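Chain A, query sequence.
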Amino acid sequence: MTIARTYSDFGTREARGVSPAYERLAVAVAGDAELLALIGLLPEAKQQPNLLFAAVRLLGGPVDDPAAFHDYTVANWAAIEPQIRCRATQTNEPGRCAVLLPVLAALPGPLALLEVGASAGLCLYPDRYAYRYGEHRLGTGGPLLDCEATGLTPPDRVPEVVWRAGLDLNPLDVTDPADLAWLDALIWPEHAHRRARLRAAAAVAAADPPHLVRGDLLDDLPALAAQAPPDATLVVFHTSVLYQVPAPRREAFAALVGTLPGHWIANESPEVVVHRDLPQPPDAGLRNVLALDGRPLAWTRSHGQGLAWFG
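Chain A, predicted structure.
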């Protein structure tokens, strides 16, 4: 796929109806030969729209006007390029716990959670947050996570979690202002509610920091999984992570995680984790598939704000 097509698709498929600013930017970049040439200097894995836009936001550049974005990016490319090269899209969206919760609450507890691609580990606290599925509320903590759920009865309890750990090539620390600033920059411009949610979840993690390990999802997963308490149910999970992993390594990871005790929860695009005989999603905003041990259960929205259960 060409860079122009990548940006065009991002604008028309992912940002449309979700972020007007990013929709405008992505479509404009797709037709901007000067910016496409600069992006083409980056490794393929670093050419993604969200990474470029977040790097510009981190440096204080404009993202609300395509012309201003063009001028700023061209003039400041020498500062923007190193930020892109040294960073990754580590969006740590605690809202995704709302689509994980129906599965986690149904597993035998207590649970030992191990997140692959954990970023700062904010999705490792499903037991500490509060949830609202329509009129149904549960949990007493904060932040409050709203999720529009269809096709299932919402859970009536949060799970008991006795161990939590994360694996990431570059784990982030929410007590580090620079790391928190990057997580903030990754949130799309109009999403003030997600920015507030990030701060609230970061406070939860800072009060009881998770065990985050710098490592690879193949080389280092077994050793970290072996640290889980033997009397707890191990749950290895990941959300919108594997698109950054080459296909052969994704397949090797699926084979590896299947050999571990406990359970495996994936919340990924069906283009990344392939399932047979999926029903059509009810609407285009439901882009990920929630699966337990390889069995698909629901379509989900990218930030955890909705799911359509079919399992």
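Residues 3-86 form one domain. DSSP finds eleven helices and twelve strands in the chain.
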